[in-house]
């Protein structure tokens, strides 16, 4: 029973990783590293994967990942998308990867500050790529973050793709 208890509870916990398992240059992909600052002063590490000009679909895709790891876990996903013609932007939430430190209580489901992180990234990317469509690929906890950020970013994005959509926070909290 104890093992099952900890397995179930770990599903609803934030588990950041400060170390990168790979980088875009480790797979020989051209990218730009960009520091983005949030309105409350946090520095976020961001990678922009360059698209090959002959494949460019004029779409920028911001990856808003789940509650574990960091953006380095999505290097292969990003490379495949960039190879298919999408400019891909990955970022680390505060307290994840090489972004600025942030005290995280691992038993939390998410932090409202993560929505501020997505807002800062979206604002910067919208201004940098004003001639392209901008969308968000939100995964699991990222769907909560995208939903919370949406009122502030709705005029800067053209679409959201939600994977593993969290629809009822009360239900999750009742079963955790």
Provide an overview of this structure.
This protein has 176 residues and is of the alpha/beta class. The protein has a single domain, classed as Alpha/Beta hydrolase fold, catalytic domain (Rossmann fold), CATH 3.40.50.1820. The protein contains five helices and eight strands, in the order αβββββαβαβαβα. The chain has helices at residues 2-11, 75-83, 112-128, 141-153, 169-175; strands at 15-16, 31-37, 43-49, 59-64, 68-69, 86-91, 133-139, 159-163. Strands 2-3-6-4-7-8 form a six-stranded mixed sheet, with helices on both faces. The chain has a two-stranded parallel sheet with strand order 1-5. Helix 3 crosses helix 4. 37% of the residues are buried. Residues 1-10 have low confidence and may be disordered.
Give the helices and strands, then pairings.
Elements: H1 2-11, E1 15-16, E2 31-37, E3 43-49, E4 59-64, E5 68-69, H2 75-83, E6 86-91, H3 112-128, E7 133-139, H4 141-153, E8 159-163, H5 169-175
Parallel strand pairs: 1-5, 4-6, 4-7, 7-8
Antiparallel strand pairs: 2-3, 3-6
CATH architecture: 3-Layer(aba) Sandwich
Low-confidence stretches: 1-10
| Biggest sheet, spatial arrangement of strands | 2-3-6-4-7-8
Largest sheet: 6 strands, mixed
Look at the structure and name the CATH superfamily: Alpha/Beta hydrolase fold, catalytic domain
Helix content: 25-40%
> What does the average pLDDT come to?
89
What is the string of helix and strand elements? HEEEEEHEHEHEH
What is the CATH C level class, in words? Alpha Beta
Helical element count? 5
Q: Distance between the terminal alpha carbons, to the nearest Å? A: 15 Å
Percent strand equals 15-25%
